Fold:
Amino acid sequence: MFNYTFHWNQALKALPQMLDGALITLQIALLSMLIGVACALALTGFRLSGNRVLSGFATTWIEIARNTPALFQIYMAHFGLGNFGIHLSPYTALLVGIAFNNAGYLAENFRGALKAIPDTQTRAGRSLGMTALQAFRFIVLPQMLRVAFLPTTNQMVWAILMTSLGVTVGMNTDLAGVTQELNARSFRTFEFFALAAVIYYVIAKAVTLAARAIASRMFRY
Amino acid sequence: MIEIENVRKSFGTLEVLKGIDLTVKKGEVVTVIGGSGSGKSTLLTCINGLEPIDSGRIKIDGTEVHAKSTDLNKLRSKVGIVFQQWNAFPHLTVLENVMLAPRKVLGLSKQAAEEVAVKQLTHVGLGEKLSVYPNRMSGGQQQRMAIARALAMSPEYMLFDEVTSALDPQLVGEVLDTLRMLASEGMTMICVTHEMKFAREVSDRVAFFHKGVMAEIAPPEALFGAPKDPELQKFLAATH
Structure:
């Protein structure tokens, strides 16, 4: 049927190298989420600000992030900005690209969460004498967190998987980058990529399960 | 004392309050009856400043509610309001629901707030439900919790906006009992209600609203026994 001898040993020997790469992957994903959440909060604020310039800026960002390929966003961070003399290393460009993408999706997610909390909750708080800020802080925000939490962790998984796009801008230290280099040297494509896929899967699954465990502890109602 | 003088209020082109005058003295229970859209609920939200008014004046113990200089948050801790939809805070336990405003608005310590909350929750018969989340309770229990939540601010006045209208029929009784208890304790209350029997029992005076006008106001015996306003006669005939 097909004439191919698997050489798993070669791949397994490279496992420590690949796991080092996986750490870089995780690092970029985590950083991109931190930056993404911060930017998304700002974008959500801009949108609600009623200022046309700010809300226009936020809308443009969100539209581009959500409706163009993540690959292009990373390309732009590396090669696109390079045209203007702004040279980002593959690592930074990958981080910026993914953070940009995260922020767009998360901002939309946060807006949805805000809409999911009925105005009557704020009204109930205000009628007890709370200021608008207190009602938001103690009544709306904690409920928003619950609504936004799982979609946010989904974005984290997505960020982990997006890091593999880094190979297109010369990233060679993350899991995909390391795997790609090993492949180039050995041509054991199937074995290396299968092993990398398993590692991606394990990380992604671990994040999802951890998120669920945290959610069930944090949101008891 | 709550003094309402010639209050007018429109939503767009629809005038829902067409010059309302009403004075409620300390310790008095006034119920407001009338059909949907008669303006009775709007009046309550105007009294505690949740809604602005177009003209006229509402004064609470001499403080004008809609004056720019009035600290509405301070005023609202004096005037409790409970709505048709009880708006439990779902992320907080029953105890935390009731403790929140005393802590954040009145600045009570955790212990003091808990003491007040336990006292009020026990008062409305929820002493056993302190650590339960609202969604585990019936509508009637949640509504009683909302009443305890308002009472925990030690209000001098309570406004009840059709607090039994969203409840299953078998749960109405427990909430009305809570209101009766408050009335018997001397709480000053304005209750918008569709429960005629209740209005007849607890009220010092009953007001009938029709199309934004207070068409008649009288002690319950007179209002139910010998209604003068033709619209009120029709309304009573339809609801009996």
